[in-house]
Structure prediction request, 95 residues.
Amino acid sequence: MVVSMFQVIIEIPETSSIKDKRRVINSLRDRTQRRFRMSCAEVDLQDSLRFSQLGGAIVSNSREFGESVASKAIQFIEDTGLAKLHDFQVHSEFY
Prediction:
């Protein structure tokens, strides 16, 4: 069993309040979970007004498949236009 994970740091430049930020983050999280059938959550920078760190994970039998899905999820987050991607990581762990 392989767990493939990603972490992204995104900037949300159009926000003026934490409420606006939460709306964008919740939308990105929910859309990513539904489209790629993976777990996704805001894992850090919750108190920052303009930045957020999202993390996602998928369990599969293949490292290549898991990392491919994680990479596609990152590209999806960037392509939505809701946030600007600053940094990302993709890695897998074997169990």
In short: The chain has a mean pLDDT of 90. The first helix runs from residue 18 to 36.
